Amino acid sequence: MEQLRIYTLADKETAEHYFTERWDKHIRSLPKFGFEIKGVYIGNTPEIANQVIVIISFPDNADPDEMTEQYFKSPEFADNMAGFERSKFTNVETKILRSAN
């Protein structure tokens, strides 16, 4: 099962920082919690330049919300986000995806 996550941040510069600095750390720590990162992207047109877009895979019978909550409570997540102002997120959108094949 895959999930699309769209993180909208306050501005392009904040999105670039989150993309380069924070996601590099998440990519290393998320697999310890059962997540598989399929791709991490940053918006490449003016209207979405402030968005970081991620595709994550979960085990078939997993509860994505429960897994995410466990990660958010972990020391790894706290370390990854240390010094980053969470108020810079203006929206976080998630969608469960199903493959066409």
Q: What can you see in these coordinates?
A:
Pfam families: NIPSNAP. By secondary structure, the chain is of the alpha+beta class. The protein has a single domain (2-96), classed as Alpha-Beta Plaits, CATH 3.30.70.100. 34% of the residues lie in helices and 31% in strands. The chain contains three helices and four strands, in the order βαββααβ. It has helices at residues 12-29, 64-72, 75-81; strands at residues 2-9, 36-42, 51-57, 89-97. A four-stranded antiparallel β-sheet has the order 2-3-1-4, covered by helices on one side. The longest helix is centred in the N-terminal third of the chain and has 18 residues, at 12-29. It starts with a strand and ends with a strand. The mean pLDDT is 94.
Brief overview:
This protein has helices spanning 12-29, 64-72, 75-81; strands at 2-9, 36-42, 51-57, 89-97. It has 101 residues and is an alpha+beta fold. β2 and β3 (51-57) form a beta hairpin.
Number of strands: 4
Number of helices: 3
* CATH topology label: Alpha-Beta Plaits
Strand content: 25-35%
- The CATH level-2 architecture is identified as 2-Layer Sandwich
